[in-house]
Design goal:
- This protein is α/β, with parallel strands linked by helices.
- It has two domains: 265 residues, Rossmann fold (3-Layer(aba) Sandwich); 108 residues, 2-Layer Sandwich (Dihydrodipicolinate Reductase, domain 2), CATH 3.30.360.
- It has 13 helices and eleven strands.
- α7 links the parallel β5 and β6.
């Protein structure tokens, strides 16, 4: 048993994309946990769990970004916290250590080496902390690096792709740091997962399930339990932040749309529309609409049938706040992963499927009730 003196004094989150909308909002939330915990703590699923990790108010941040804008200025630019007195934390934000992201034009092995050096420096600065890496980089184009048999193949062939996430994830694994992939980008390719197992590093991801997809899993699970057959599901999303603008590039949206559409087949156990129409009738659209800013909106039209094949329909309109929904999940995931690392879990942690649109290797629980049960089991296993 570890003595109280040996216990880590807190949790360090290393964030790629720390000046983005989610990252900068996360920075304010971490400060609020220290000075105004009731504004954040009640919204964490792990608030009353994992006590051995210490007080959530002891969480610290560091990270990377390609922007030269100071973090405190980035908070204002994203307009997420309008109406919140976040300026009182500006001085503390200026003290957060942030490194410049590697040059995306350099070869992948060079990026990994630079990041490994920076990971080691962070670990040396915070030797008495649990450390977790969180990927919050923008959605990027899909790639076919899953065909690479080894990590050396990935490093060799990855230089021909735009895969900044992969450099961070490989560097984190090589440094023994748990990884949370909150982005839709595919970094959990087989060679990387195998390396994580060899290094004894836990992985969680991909694509944080914050709003529409979360409710889709809840509703689809309820329809499945009630034996109501879904004949079609149409989803549309509008958002006006940098994420929404980035997703207007079809190459950047492709993986995100794949993650969002793949969820429903898994939860229902069949493809909507396949029996009646011979093809999938699950449609997802994303559109950039500047007036929305970070306050995204989503509509869902769900067509289903009951006995005698008689049709019914359900409409859902979510008016959410993208970063406000995401930040508590990031904090929860970081705490879960620190706990998993503490008990020497390695490779994918499928019990965390609750938090993601797409699990690693598709081995996670699928329905809402199964995902909650998996979290309960995980708590027992890591405590």
């Amino acid at each position: 048993m570890e003595s109280p003196e040996d216990k880590p004094k807190g949790l360090l989150l290393l964030i790629a994309g720390i000046k983005g909308a989610i990252g900068s909002t996360l920075a304010i939330a971490v400060q609020a946990l220290q000075h105004d915990p009731e504004s954040v703590l009640p919204y964490l699923m792990t608030a009353q769990k994992l006590a051995f990790l210490g007080d959530p108010g002891q969480i610290k941040l560091a990270g990377w970004d390609r922007s030269d804008t100071p973090l405190e200025a980035a908070v204002g630019q994203h307009h997420v916290l309008n109406g919140v007195d976040w300026e009182i934390y500006a001085e503390a934000l200026a003290q957060i250590p942030i490194q410049r992201s590697p040059d995306s034009g350099s070869a992948l092995p060079e990026q990994v080496q630079q990041l490994k050096t920076q990971f080691q420096a962070f670990l040396a600065t915070y030797p008495d902390h649990f450390v977790v890496f969180v990927n919050l980089l923008p959605a990027g184009p899909c790639h076919d690096l899953a065909r690479c048999a080894t990590l050396d193949d990935v490093l060799d062939q990855g230089s021909g792709f735009e895969v900044p996430d992969l450099a961070y994830v490989i560097a984190a694994i090589e440094s023994g740091v748990p990884v949370v992939n909150f982005t839709p980008n595919e970094v959990e390719i087989p060679a990387v997962v195998q390396q994580a197992r060899l290094k004894g590093v836990p992985l969680a991801g991909r694509d944080g399930k914050t709003g529409q997809t979360y409710l889709k899993v809840v509703l689809a699970s309820a329809l499945r339990a009630r034996k109501l057959l879904v004949n079609g599901w149409y989803s549309v999303n509008i958002l006006g932040n940098a994420d929404g603008e980035n997703l207007m590039d079809p190459n950047h949206a492709a993986c995100k749309l794949t993650n969002k559409t793949g969820v429903l087949d898994q939860v229902l156990g069949y493809t909507p529309g396949q029996r009646r129409y011979g093809a999938s009738t699950h449609k997802v659209a994303i559109d950039f609409y500047a007036p929305r800013g970070d306050a995204k909106e989503a509509w869902d039209v769900i067509d289903f049938e009951g006995v005698f094949g008689l049709g019914m329909s359900l409409r859902l309109n979510l008016q959410g706040r993208d970063s406000i929904l995401a930040v508590p999940l990031v904090l929860d995931l970081a705490r879960w992963m620190a706990a998993a690392d503490r008990v020497k879990r390695s490779g994918p942690v499928p019990e965390l499927a609750f938090y993601f649109k797409q699990g690693i290797e598709n081995h996670g629980p699928e329905t809402f009730e199964d995902q909650l049960a998996a979290l309960d089991k995980l708590e027992k296993d890591v405590s």
